[in-house]
Amino acid sequence: MTGANSRRGERGRTLLLSHRHVQPMVSKCMTFEFEELVSEVDAVETAPIPSKPWSRLATRVERTAPWLFAGARPLPVPDGPTYDLLYLSLHSTSELAQLQPMNRILGMAETTAVNIDEVWRSELSMRSGELEMLRRFDFVFTPCEGSVDALSRALGKRCHYLPHSIDTLRFFPYADRRPRTIDVYFMGRRRDELHRVLYDATRSTNRLYLFDTAVVGEAYGYPEHRDHLAELAQQTKYFVVDIAKANRPDQSGDQPELALRYYEGAAAGAVLMGVAPATEGFARLFGWENAVIPIPATASAMASLLDELDANPTATAAIRRANVVNSLRRHDGVYRWEQILRTVGMEPLPGLDARKQRLEELAKGVENSEPA
Fold it and tell me: Comparing C-alpha atoms, which of 164, 122, 169, 166 is closest to residue 145?
């Protein structure tokens, strides 16, 4: 373990378990970014999440024989170095099988909290063994708003909605004002009908349309992956957004959830185009005017919309400014960490308020100026 913000000879009050040096997957890079941000504003130590070759077998056993885990409870906090809080973020409940020996790991802190990135209501009935393991945590968070109530019932305890977040300072577009030379950017997974409209519209108007042509799994490195994505978004005029797992209704069912790209595009000052889900979370988190502009059903209508937006730079500048200002005030990871601390009953440290103050100063600067 390595201390991040604690002084020499003193432990951090929070232990972060991380996949950062074990599974450098693209889908986990947002988690690594959050962990790095937390390490800057709190007294944190980090340790790798155990990775066992038999974790798949353990997962299968936990799913088919959940009663084997029903009686297990965390051991008392051991003597020696302990922590006030143990926190980790997992992509799915299946990764809980890596936490072995789980009793000893949970016993390292007085309070334990976990965030599960993907929790789909339609799959909960098939996760009984994993839910038994999840029940051992004191606090459970998820960015899947539509699953909070169902997960709370399944665990017999209150779970908490923790929206996605990003390092808005990394995505802040006005520190280095680059020209927006990418007309439309549609990153990651996509629905074919949206892609086809955009593809035909941009081809017919000689605009640059950037999109992925292959599925990417592992990242070469977390920091450069996030930096490169931020640079692309900062140079994009119109950033396409859609709900999480939009092309996998077999997984998400009828559960619309906000994907991370909403936060990334807005923080980078791009105009968001695509799907605005009719959910309470979207209204609360992106409830400002023109937060997301719908994409028309035909390529000709899409081409006309792009022409109209390009012809009105004053209006698009106002949209970009609102996106950046609201991101700085709502969607930086520091606000999510503050939510976690308040929920578990811990007070923020001075570094958290210092970052919030810096974000507010930037927001006011953008608000009171006319960015180029």
Answer: 164
Helix ranges, the chain (H): 29-41, 55-64, 102-106, 128-134, 148-155, 168-171, 192-204, 222-234, 249-252, 260-267, 280-285, 299-310, 313-330, 333-344, 350-367
pTM of the model: 0.88
- Indicate whether 3 pLDDT > 60: no
CA distance 356 to 40: 12
Residue 129 maps to a domain? yes
- CATH number, position 193: 3.40.50.2000
Structure confidence at residue 101 as a pLDDT band (50, 70, 90): confident
Mean per-residue pLDDT over the chain, rounded: 86
What is the tally of structural domains in the chain? Answer: 2
Pair 9, 156 in one domain: yes
- Tokens of residue 320, six digits: 């970009």
pLDDT at 17 over 50: yes
